[in-house]
Amino acid sequence: MIRFREVSVKKDGQAILTEIDLSLSERRIGIIGRNGSGKSTFARLFNGLETPTNGSVTLNGQGGSKALRRHVGFVFQNPDNQIVYPIVHEDLEFGLKNLGLGKDEMRARIDTVLRRFQLEHLRDRLTHQLSGGEKQMIALAGVLVMRPRLIVLDEPTTLLDLWNKRRFMAAIHELEQQIVLVSHDLDLLDGFDRVLHIDGGQVVADGLPDPVIAGYTAGAQC
């Protein structure tokens, strides 16, 4: 379970998030809201990419950026912001080296994830030659080899065509980890357990997807 205790974030004296107090234990959680509402800042708190100005964020009682980054994976909207090495297997090894794993263990983890999503043929490819859909799948693989407990995804399908969006979301639905998905594409939240609507830096609605999404869309029609 990830816990937000009276979390606020300020930047340059401006309040971005105000007194977020939540316990999140559901397996599939969606985050919705207008551009500039604070939802991306909220998402980045999960794994320490952002830190609270006030309050705390803990996962199973553990706090601090180091602990959060170890156990919470993050997939960006644009995989080019996440893929840093020129060859796929080198990029997938990057985070594992920081864990101090041996070469055999690293290779086993990488092979397992690539095989799971039928990506073995990309192992030795140049990352800049991958298609957009392939890049996003490799970005996801780079998170999964770390074996996180929770994965946060910030608009991960925005740059994908319909075929690749469906492929990516099929992969997400198969995962055993807890998932937090930020998305403007409300259809992606079908079957989720809980949805948070953030507006003006606060959680203004929190509950089952249908009523929360209905309230959000109704407000957008005003």
Automatic annotation (TrEMBL):
Know the name of this protein?
ABC transporter ATP-binding protein
Q: In Gene Ontology terms, what is one molecular function of this protein?
A: ATPase-coupled transmembrane transporter activity
- Gene3D superfamilies per the record? P-loop containing nucleotide triphosphate hydrolases
Occurrences of domain ABC transporter (ranges): 2-222
Q: Name the keywords, alphabetized.
A: ATP-binding, Nucleotide-binding, Transport
What the entry lists under PROSITE patterns is as follows: ABC_TRANSPORTER_1, ABC_TRANSPORTER_2
Q: Does the keyword Nucleotide-binding apply?
A: yes
